[in-house]
């Protein structure tokens, strides 16, 4: 794989986003490789726990729009819908439901599509420097592809980060219940390894059933239906943007990237 590293050490599989030169921004190839890695870990009977991490300063700057989009004149809502339904909605729901515990290790920036990678994981360990944000409203798009915001942060905090675009700190995320623990940056990998090892020592069937119980409880409360319906709301945002010359979401790309420097 070109953009992902996949390693297995005993009962733990580690998937590493490996595009640090662009803050692990997600192009189509990275997402396809990531799905392959998740599948490998899910089908390897020796693997009990899956760890997702990002190489370099940032976990993920979100979607690599320069890779993902054709020129504005070639974009159609049908193209956007089909592309996002596959790589964003289907992939993330599949990762969420892998019948093995998963842990995301997050450092630096985790922007928009970066949330789409860590939220399907069962646990999140964040470095003290982690910042979580979703500035979609500034691009004229209200809904998102994988709307975990309300479930992860609660309704009012979800509205705050969407309305303002401001980052949520690791400490705020822990207080809201989105993050399990916050650790010093230089201890992130060690703390995640310790947690993964502790979980890996548990009976795999018990872990699988515990995960299933929690996920099914969320689904009964409406999680799955909400994810599906908000995905369609998100597509109306694209439709609105298509009606504006130059497609504003693309114009914001350089501005957003500059803030990571």
TrEMBL record:
GO MF, one annotated term: catalytic activity
TM region(s), chain numbering: none
Signal peptide boundaries: none
Pfam families noted in UniProt: ECH_1
Gene3D superfamilies per UniProt: 2-enoyl-CoA Hydratase, Chain A, domain 1
InterPro entries: ClpP/crotonase-like_dom_sf (IPR029045), Enoyl-CoA_hydra/iso (IPR001753)
PANTHER family from the UniProt entry: ENOYL-COA HYDRATASE (PTHR43802), IP11341P-RELATED (PTHR43802:SF1)
Family assignment from sequence similarity: Belongs to the enoyl-CoA hydratase/isomerase family.
Protein name as catalogued: Enoyl-CoA hydratase
């Amino acid at each position: 794989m070109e953009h992902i590293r996949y390693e297995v050490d005993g009962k733990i599989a580690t998937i590493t986003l490996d595009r640090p030169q662009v803050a692990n921004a997600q192009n189509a190839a990275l997402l396809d490789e990531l799905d392959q890695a998740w599948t490998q870990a899910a089908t390897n009977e020796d693997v009990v726990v899956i760890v997702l991490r990002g190489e370099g300063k940032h976990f993920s700057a979100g979607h690599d729009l320069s890779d993902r989009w054709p020129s504005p004149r070639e974009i159609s809502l049908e193209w956007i819908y089909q592309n996002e339904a596959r790589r964003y909605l289907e992939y993330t729901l599949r990762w969420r439901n892998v019948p093995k515990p998963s842990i995301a290790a997050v450092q630096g920036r985790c922007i928009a599509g970066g949330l789409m990678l860590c939220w399907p994981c069962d646990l999140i360990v964040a470095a003290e420097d982690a910042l979580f944000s979703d500035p979609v409203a500034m691009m004229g798009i209200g809904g998102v592809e994988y709307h975990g915001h309300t479930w992860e942060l609660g309704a009012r905090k979800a509205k705050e980060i969407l309305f303002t675009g401001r980052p949520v700190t690791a400490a705020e995320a822990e207080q809201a219940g989105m993050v399990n623990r916050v650790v010093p940056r230089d201890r992130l990998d060690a703390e995640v390894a310790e947690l993964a090892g502790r979980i890996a020592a548990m009976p795999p069937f018990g872990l699988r059933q515990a995960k299933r119980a929690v996920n099914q409880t969320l689904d009964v409360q409406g999680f799955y239906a909400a994810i599906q319906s908000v995905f369609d709301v998100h597509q109306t945002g694209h439709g609105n943007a298509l009606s504006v010359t130059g497609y504003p979401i693309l114009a914001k790309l350089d501005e957003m990237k500059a803030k990571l420097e």
